[in-house]
Predict the structure.
Amino acid sequence: MLTWFSLWPFMTLPFLLSFVLGILPSLSVGGGEVGGALVRQYGVNQLAALMPHDFSMVLIDWFNQASYVEELVLHGVISLNIGLLFYPLFFGLGSLAIRAAAWSAKQELAQSNTLLNRR
């Protein structure tokens, strides 16, 4: 039987995916950089675009002077917010999966009961 306890890894997928992409080292692929610092910088730039100008300048200035650990902490907070934004979607998909599994089990049980009643 499918339960929320068995779906918890599925619910954390958006957070883990965005966080892991940010903590991986940057790689050179085809003459360009991919992953790591670029993902963290993109997240900060997107967050700064949502803030008032003065706060966004302070955030970007702080990020440019931050250590690697401080960058990861900020990236973790941004990744958590991304995960929470996708949570309603994944909750709906999980609810549909649980309902489909319950419906399937109910149909299977009804079918086995009819076979037992015929004997």
